[in-house]
Amino acid sequence: MALEELLKELMLLRAPSGYEKEMAYRMRALFAAAGGETRIDRAGNVIAKFAGSAENGPVVMVCAHMDQLGFIVRQIEPNGFLRIDRLGGVPVKVLPSLKLSVRTTAGSWLPGVVGAKSHHAAAAEEKTKVDPIETLYVDIGVRSAADARNLGVEIGCPCVYEPSYEKLHGEMVCGTSADNRGGCACLAQIASELSQNRPAATVFLAACVWEEFNLRGAMLAAREIKPDAAICLDVVLAGDTPDLEGRFDTAVGGGPAVSVYNFHGRGTLNGCIAHEGLARLADQAAAEDSVALQFFASTGIITDSAYIQFENTGAACVDLGFPVRYTHTPGEVCCLRDIADLVRLVCGMLRRIGPDFNFNRY
Ligand SMILES: [Zn+2]
Prior knowledge:
Layout: H1 3-11, H2 21-33, E1 37-40, E2 46-50, E3 59-65, E4 70-76, E5 82-87, E6 99-103, E7 109-114, E8 138-139, H3 145-150, E9 158-161, E10 165-167, E11 172-175, H4 178-196, E12 202-208, H5 217-225, E13 229-237, E14 257-264, E15 270-273, H6 276-288, E16 294-299, H7 305-308, E17 316-324, E18 332-335, H8 336-352
Bound molecules: zinc ion.
Zinc ion binds next to α4 and β13.
């Protein structure tokens, strides 16, 4: 399936953490169509095995999270307005007047909008301040709590940004959940490639749950796969906007990136220092296959690999990504070519991992 069509389809699916079924079923179909031995584990991870050509060859896991951030309904007001809380790292300042989709207990989706005090009635100081999420509310068009409940809305129902996909100039794309449907689109294309060319290593592709919530869905997949190495596909921050000048070298359209170092403090106290051999392999594969490669290192960020690296006797991990602007907003911007080149990069790495590859740190 062509990348653009695939990315659009996946970005328009609704799959908040804990409710990934729509994505999981689609990924299962894509993996199975490519001939992968595919199953969904108890947590909801979609895992597809592509046996390698070498007997007792290494096992490599390539994963991407398929969930997205959103909200949950915290309270239903007597007049039918919904109070919400965050499910994942939502930037609260973008929320007023935003369209949302609210999932009912039956699994269908209702349209809604985050209320914003009428501009004409707002005091001067209210016009420029960010409202905390506790004060926000969602309007689904009903007039009472009973009406909301009749539609299947209950406390705990998840919500997501109303899905969108827009093609900007050239190969630039803008919309919801580029994080991490771009990574999932890569997985699907890697599956097609594996169906044509079998590397020595046995490859498990895993579309994983819960990343935006607790980062530990992929951990369960790794526990079962027992990989020697894991390549984790997710976004990296693009530093090419006026507000991030001087922070990162990464640019949208500049190619995929190796995230050499990421770390998240504030209680998480975890991150990933890339396995040097795998980072070097990415560099080598990119150079030999003419893929432009960028490098990224930052605190404040964390991915699934932070937990995968602790499974079994420790998997060698590397984070690879495609640059994204305006992360976690409904208008994430990325470039189709970066995603296509990320596929080429990963396939190039998989081809080069032989039985003698050193998965130890040194
Ligand atoms: Zn992500």
